[in-house]
Structure formats: structure tokens, C-alpha cells
Amino acid sequence: MPSTAARTRLRLAGALAAVLVASGVATGPAAQAHEGPAHGKPRTTLADLAQRHGRYFGSATDNPELTDTAYTKILGEEFDMITPGNGMKWYATEPQQGVFDWTAGDEIVDLARDHHQKVRAHTLVWHSQLPGWLTGKEWTADELRAVLKNHIQTEVRHYRGKVYAWDVVNEAFNEDGTYRETVFYKTLGPGYIADALRWAHQADPKAKLYLNDYNIEAVGPKSDAYYALAKELKARRVPLDGIGLQAHLALQYGYPTTLEDNLRRFSRLGLDTALTEVDVRMLLPATDEKLAQQADWYRDMTEACLEVRRCVGITVWDYTDKYSWIPAFFPGQGAALPWDEQLAPKPAYQAIREALS
Ligand code: G3I
Fold it and tell me: What start and end residues bound the annotated signal peptide (predicted)?
């Protein structure tokens, strides 16, 4: 185990190397990472490095970006797991009741298949990005149950055999660990979660089924709620395979230091875990110091996942600041991803490589 000082030196060296790479100066391993077969040298990607640990390294993507060929080149090369950022959500897939549209999701699944990548599918049941026909009406429990079952089973059946995992229910809890009062909870009660998992399992028995949420990286009231629910669902033999920790972090709020313990307690319940939507935002402007701290957080998260056997992989919520959701949602914040807006790797990229190496 290197001393703290040695670790700091290593981190600074890594950060420096990434900056040199970003500015076009060739260095050791990082330079190698960006030299393709045309240069006659072996090229290791984040996916290659993660696979050596039996993990995947993924990225979210979204349909409008797929016309950017410089972007899709890196997306196709560096990652082995892809998540559609919007294309499989309810508003996109069932824009009118009973009328399904697979265009956006299929485009991403096809692209992933062309690059021999797997797909983490996202998401079946969520209170956000619902179609107007669903939110604009009062439903009886029987009606909504039928609508939910049909949506889940039609979508899961469509992608059966084509996706590795599903985020079945997304963001079901409040910060204090109480159930979020969504249309599903209010109309159907908490049993909608077990029902959703069972219906999804019937439609694709091989897909890994997840519950997924943000602010559950640390041990606390919200992750405790997931722990209690997961334990109960397992005891009742409800088909739940994993818990997705989104990991939308922000430098100004501090690092979730209990992440590894938290991952481990879910593993002990016999569940997989995954970091599903990682980004580390900061107050702009980005400075070298903030980018170095961000790199440390990416490294620490990657190491935490590698330390816990059933943490199966990491997905960044898109890989480049060019297409991050952050600036639109948190004005004045950004620079959250391992590649910058020019698609150049940042210190965080090098830090992830080092953690995986
Ligand atoms: O489709 C319309 C388009 O027609 C219109 O021209 C454009 C103008 O703004 O908006 C488009 O819709 C946007 C949609 O993404 C598709 O691009 C919405 O405004 C925008 O709000 C929406 O944001 C998405 C967000 O979920 C919604 O909550 C982000 O792209 C997506 O990355 C984000 O992802 C979520 C995960 O699903 C769950 N966890 C949190 C994560 C971040 O919010």
C-alpha cells in the first residue's frame, strides 16, 4: 500500500499526464491509450481494463448526439456497456396509450450491438418523463395496474435478449427514506414495486432487474430504505437482482465516504450493485484544483466498486461535458464528466484508468 504522500505524488503525476495528453503531448500509458491499431501499438480502453476485473465500464448516450462522429467513435471504442439516457423512457416508448415507438431505443441498441457492447436499459417505472396521456388523467387502481403491466411487459418483451439489465423502478424514495408520492405509489400503494419486478421478470427471465436511485451512495436514510426494501423483496422471493446507485455527485457537497460499506451491505443480501449514472459536477469555472479533486473522486469511486465483489460495473452519465445534462439543470455548474467539451480526456479519465490498472 503506498503511503499517503506517495499516493498524492502518483495522483499528481496522473493528473499531469492527462493534461499533457489533453494538450496533445505524448506521455506513457495515457498516450498509448489514445494510439489506435494504426500506430501498431496495443490499445487498452476503459472497457478492457474493467474486464480484467470482471467488471464493465459504460456510458449513457442520447439519440441527438449520434450524428457527432467524433463522439460516437470514442463511445464505440472506450466502453462495453451503453445506457440510453432518454430513448427507453415512457414518454418516448409509449407516446400514446397502447401505441409503442421503439425508434430511439432501437437506434441505441443497434449501435451498441455493432460495437459488441451490452445495454443497461433505463427505465420502466419513473415519475418523470411520463407521457401526457398518463399524467393528464385520474386512474383507478385497476386501470393503472393494467396500464403499468402492459407498458412494462410490452417494452421488456421488445428488448428481450437484447439488454443485460433493466432499471425497473427509478427513484422510488424521498431523501428521508419515505416512499415518493408518485402516481404509482398513490394509486397502487408500495406493492407496485414488487409487481413491476415480477412483470418484468415474466417478460424477460434473463435480464437483471434493478431498483435505481440517486443520493443512495452513502449509508443514510434513503439507502437504508433501499436496504430494508431489498431485504424484504429477497425474503419474499421477488425477482430483484441489483441496486443501482446513480452517483450524481457534486464537489461542493462532499464525497460519500461510506460508499464501499454501502455497496458491501447490498452484496451481503445477495444482490449485485452498480454505479449507474456517475458524474461529478462542480461550480464553474473549472480550475486545475477542482479537476484534480474530481479526478480523486472518480478514482475513489472506481476503487470502491473494485473492492466489492458484486459491484458489477460503472456507467458514466454520458462521457463528455459536451453532452452532459448538468449545465441545463444546475445553472453555473458543470464539467462533470471524464472528457471535456472538446472530447479531450481530463484528469478524471486518467484517474479511472489508474484505479482500473
Ligand atoms: O425532447 C425534447 C425536445 O423536443 C426539445 O426540443 C428539447 C428542448 O429542451 O427538450 C427535449 O427534451 C429534453 C429531454 O431530456 C430529451 O433531450 C428535456 O427538456 C430534458 O429535461 C430531458 O432531460 C433528461 C432528464 O433525465 C430528465 O429528467 C436528461 O437528458 C437525462 O440525462 C436525465 O437523466 C436522468 C435519469 O433518467 C434518471 N436519473 C437522473 C438523470 C439526470 O436527471
Answer: 1-33
